[in-house]
Amino acid sequence: MIRLLRQLCLVLAALLFAPATLAADRGPVVLAAASLQESLTEAADAWVAKGHPKPVLSFAASSALARQVIAGAPADLFLSADEEWMDAVAKAGLLRRGTRTTLLGNRLVLIAPAASAVRLTPARGFPLARALGSGRLALADPDAVPAGKYAKAALIHLGVWTGVAARVAPAENVRAAMALVERGAAPLGIVYATDAKASRAVRVVGTFPAASHPPIRYPVAVLKASRHKDAAGFRAFLLSKQARAIFARHGFSTP
């Protein structure tokens, strides 16, 4: 009986303390723009190789992530694909003072399925609507998601938005937009250059002029509610020469 009681106590102790142990071994929770999947995962692996617990990475549209933070979702760092959604989190008073900085830059490209023969150069008045034929243009949601907002701004600047606005296939994030082109569900799409680089199923038709849309900047910040001991350290690592080299290999520009 005494031995059974001891075993029961050990089981109860394991159940009580296992969550705390797991939490202690877990790296910081990082909410990051969908376009950072491959590059941030590689950077996190490099951080782990230095002896740190692996960060928990959650990827989605910056708009969705910012709303989660504002709604109280527990996390340690936020990496947005634009300044506006980071501004929204800052306005809510949820950033740790002095930790916000620009991490990366990107370019906007027009893509088609890899087997497509379409030729088109993004420029003022270019025949985008005609190139779509009876198909639709895949974009991240142009009313909320950074990649879609940049794309809409570029098309307005180039004078072709009105001709394609009714034919947009909006997606929840930039990777979902690219997936429509990869599957052949859309003949053309607009994504970041880094997204196109990560896929063998699409090809870049052309790059949008940098002046046709607001600068594509990825800010990073530690969240005010974070208590993780590695939050500031991982942020610093992302700004390091080693991490910048990783991001550059994936096609991002670094300040």
TrEMBL record:
Alphabetic keyword roster: Metal-binding, Molybdenum, Signal
Family, as annotated: Belongs to the bacterial solute-binding protein ModA family.
One Gene Ontology biological process: molybdate ion transport
Species for this entry: Sphingopyxis macrogoltabida
Molecular function terms, GO-annotated: metal ion binding; molybdate ion binding; tungstate binding
InterPro entries linked: ModA, ModA/WtpA
Subunit organization: The complex is composed of two ATP-binding proteins (ModC), two transmembrane proteins (ModB) and a solute-binding protein (ModA).
NCBIfam families to which the protein is assigned, alphabetical: modA
One GO cellular component term noted in the UniProt record for this chain: outer membrane-bounded periplasmic space
Protein name according to UniProt: Molybdenum ABC transporter substrate-binding protein
Pfam families associated with the record: SBP_bac_11
Coiled-coil regions listed in the entry: none
Residues holding molybdate: S35, S62, A147, V174, Y192
Superkingdom to which the source organism belongs: Bacteria
Signal peptide positions on this chain: 1-23
